[in-house]
Design goal:
seven-stranded antiparallel beta sheet; kinase; Phosphorylase Kinase, domain 1; alpha+beta; single chain; PH-domain like; ATP binding; Transferase(Phosphotransferase), domain 1; 494 residues; six-stranded antiparallel beta sheet
Length: 494
């Protein structure tokens, strides 16, 4: 028996739920090589016998407050949970060994890392949940983007009465009870903590699971006493929002390739049961070859055993009408935001604007769409279809689903295999030379000013300390990508 076979034998009780069950039930789960059996107890006949070859995806759905995983099989989602994150980790590793042995090293924590393992170079981004720094991994000189999320914003002082310009709140959690009284503050704060912790884990899980060239790659996660950290691949071209705000315009050809790549990324997320909820130019990065990658999944959510959600999430100008109204929504909100981005790239402005938030929401929900520039009929039809107020009439949300988008006349000359392989020549190639690299980032400082004193300041600010995974268990992860060196194009950047 080899090592893979010895690990791929596991038997424990887990809480089990499928799409056909209304509540979780305790089941004895037994994995033996490539067969998973689920039964009431050792003496009972199996309720389910699953060949692992039939599994389409294995998903870590732990969120910091509960520990769980899910198996996608055809049109069914099987959900498993336990009180101990170690048990869930063992199951995920064992399943992945059989499902895809090569993925094992990308999944488990191989060693503990912390801020001491990085040289912090400069701030390259700031967002609702924290800062993003350009850093160098000391072991091999690899440049990475290091995103931090302060634990204070996750575990305390995190309740909010209003949706921010880039945040998420439950439409239910802010309501009063049936007697008209406000809810208990302790319960409200607990709900906020649980919700924020779920978003932190969801971002990690989504990045771990997403294997597409159009989504930023997660290399590792770790934590200090004060913060959670995501080690991401460094995408040196900055984001589309920065380039648009600095007067950059793109040809109709370039816009079409951009929109095709973004559509591929959204399609990938939706097939995994993930709604993005914060698509905007600032969350679309440009790589060194001019192609795009989505980033920042802090507001994203899995829709696995539920078909919709009601939280008010995202950035005001990109919110869908149904989200503003507090109605249940699903993946259609992403196609609305996609339509806003398409309009912005083709028209050069946002379709709905106002400094007054109430008026902005009213315009998004009620005002007719106006297209000012003379654009081809297929482009106009594409935007009008995406920006339908009624999600049931929205392009990508009808009977044919996303094929309404991929098959739209706007994309009639697009070869989707060439998009997938990034074969199209890009007109805009960002300057990522040492002299101009930081011009791609709004927050970045001049690299020539970075010195040991600044590095020490950043280390102090983020509480550089030894590995600590006791505060939020189950968060840390170490993939293979961090250990591989930079590609040649990055060797002389810093």
């Amino acid at each position: 028996m080899n090592d893979n076979e010895s690990i791929a034998h596991l038997q424990t009780y887990l809480l089990f739920k499928s799409c056909n069950l209304t509540e979780e039930r305790k089941k004895l789960c037994f994995l033996s090589n490539d067969i998973l059996t689920i039964r009431e107890n050792e003496d009972a006949d199996p309720d389910h016998v699953i060949m692992l070859s039939s599994i389409e995806d294995i998903i870590d759905t732990s969120d910091g407050t509960s520990f769980s995983f899910a198996l996608r099989i055809s049109n069914n989602i099987l959900s498993f949970s336990a009180n101990d994150h170690i048990i869930v980790q063992k199951w995920l590793i064992a399943l992945r060994i059989v499902y895809s042995p090569n993925e094992l090293n990308d999944f488990k924590v191989k060693k503990h890392i912390g801020l001491k393992d990085f040289d912090l170079l400069t701030v390259i981004g700031r967002g609702f949940s924290g800062e993003v720094l350009l850093a160098r991994y000391k072991a091999n000189g690899k440049l990475v983007a290091l995103k931090s999320r302060p634990k204070e914003g996750i575990l305390g002082n995190c309740s909010s009465s209003n949706v921010s310009n880039d945040s998420c709140e439950s439409n239910e959690s802010e309501n009063s009870d049936h007697n008209g009284n406000g809810r208990n503050n302790n319960n409200s704060n607990s709900n906020s903590i649980n919700r924020n912790l779920k978003y932190a884990f969801a971002e990690r899980n989504i990045l771990m699971q997403s294997a597409t060239p159009f989504i930023t790659r997660l290399l590792s996660t770790f934590q200090s006493m004060d913060s959670l950290f995501y080690v991401l691949e460094f995408v040196p071209g900055g984001d589309l929002g920065y380039h648009l705000s600095h007067g950059k315009t793109f040809s109709p050809y370039q816009v079409k390739i951009y929109l095709a790549e973004i559509a591929m990324a959204l399609s990938h997320l939706h097939k995994l049961g993930i709604v993005f909820r914060d698509l905007k130019p600032a969350n679309i990065l440009v790589d060194a070859t001019g192609h795009l990658k989505l980033t920042d999944f802090g507001l994203s959510k899995y829709l696995l055993l539920e078909n919709s959600t009601t939280s008010l999430c995202g950035t005001h100008e990109y919110l869908a009408p149904e989200m503003i109204k507090g109605a249940s929504y699903s993946f259609a909100v992403d196609w609305w935001s996609y339509g806003i981005v398409a309009y912005q790239l083709l028209e050069g402005v946002l379709p709905f604007e106002s400094q007054n938030l109430t008026r902005l929401y009213e315009r998004i929900s009620k005002s007719p769409l106006r297209i000012w520039k003379p654009i081809p009929p297929e482009s106009k039809s594409f935007i009008n279809g995406l920006l339908q107020k009624d999600p049931l009439k929205r392009l990508g949300c009808g009977p044919k689903g996303e094929e309404e988008i991929f098959g739209h006349p706007y994309f009639q000359n697009i070869n989707w295999e060439k998009i997938k392989e990034k074969c199209y020549e890009m007109e805009f190639i960002p300057d990522v030379s040492r002299e101009h690299l930081m011009r791609n980032f709004d927050c970045a400082k001049n690299l020539n000013l970075l010195n040991d004193e600044l590095n020490d300041t950043m280390n102090t600010m983020f509480n550089s300390c030894s590995y600590d995974d006791s505060h939020i268990p189950g968060f840390s992860y170490m993939g293979q990508g961090l250990e591989s060196p930079n590609s040649d194009m990055y060797n002389n950047l810093i």
